[in-house]
Amino acid sequence: MTAHASPDSPTPPAPLTADAPLVIAGRHYRSRLLTGTGKFTGPEQTRLATQAAGAEIVTVAIRRSNIGQNPDEPNLLDVLPPDRYTILPNTAGCYTADDAVRTCRLARELLDGRSLVKLEVLGDARTLFPDVVQTLAAAETLVREGFEVMVYTSDDPLLARRLEEIGCVAVMPLAAPIGSGLGIQNKWNLIEIVENAKVPIIVDAGVGTASDAAIAMELGCDGVLMNTAIAGARDPVLMAHAMRLAVEAGRAAFSAGRIPRKRFASASSPVDGLIG
């Protein structure tokens, strides 16, 4: 039997206004959580965690993952089909601009001419910090060749602006070193980057837990990309779900507008006109 509200029942609240989609290179995405595909125990865990995260864009390290270049090995695209996900090839493991450019060219061949790539050129094997000089050089070449470049970089606001000027479709500053789990280490730099950007700003690297992801979104970032924080958790699928909620909550909080910080409390009810 269907229950009907009585005339005295409160009116149900109106649905919240839908958030604008994340737009990258002209494509619209509902999810603002991007995930990696490395470090999982196998293809099935990768699939389950990706689904739990609600991710629509997944990164693939071309030098470490098989997406068809090795026909005798399991193909990652069998569990993450390109008709369901945007496969974002990345240049992880590249230490020169030339290597990164070659890797992107290979990815374009393997993915039937798709031009969206994630550029990262590393400068140090221990910290995995980006080599910003080589990154700039690779970005210029790739944009000139028609690639749509999402670029991993340091949290330097001037460098972020330069990469945008080159033509990168998204700038991806680190929050902390890759895989460190240290969280947002310099929120003021991120705010400076966000406030001056005309392309999406996506935090890439350093997230350790759900609160880190929420903070990134509360600062105004357009999205968060993570791999180790999910794949390295004791329960990756559950952590993927937690990260999805955190990104959604952080985005909603940013859109809602937080109250100002104050040194002293203020009464939640006015005191004027109280009896006695």
Quick overview of this protein structure:
It is globular and about 80 Å long.
Question: Could you please describe the fold and organization of this structure?
Answer:
- With 276 residues, the chain is an alpha/beta fold.
- It has helices spanning 43-53, 97-110, 132-144, 157-166, 187-196, 210-218, 228-231, 236-256; strands spanning 22-24, 27-29, 33-36, 57-61, 86-90, 116-119, 148-153, 170-173, 202-204, 223-226.
- Helix 2 crosses helix 3 (132-144), helix 4 runs parallel beside helix 5 and helix 6 (210-218) runs parallel beside helix 8.
- The longest helix is centred in the C-terminal third of the chain and has 21 residues, at 236-256.
- Residues 1-7 have low confidence and may be disordered.
Q: What tags apply to this protein structure?
A:
single chain; 276 residues; alpha/beta; 33% helix; disordered N terminus
Largest sheet: 5 strands, parallel
Q: Which class best fits the helix and strand makeup?
A: alpha/beta
**Extended strand count:** 10
How are the strands of the largest sheet arranged?
A: 5-4-3-10-9
Q: How large a portion of the residues is in β-strands, by DSSP E?
A: 5-15%
Rg from alpha-carbon coordinates = 21 Å
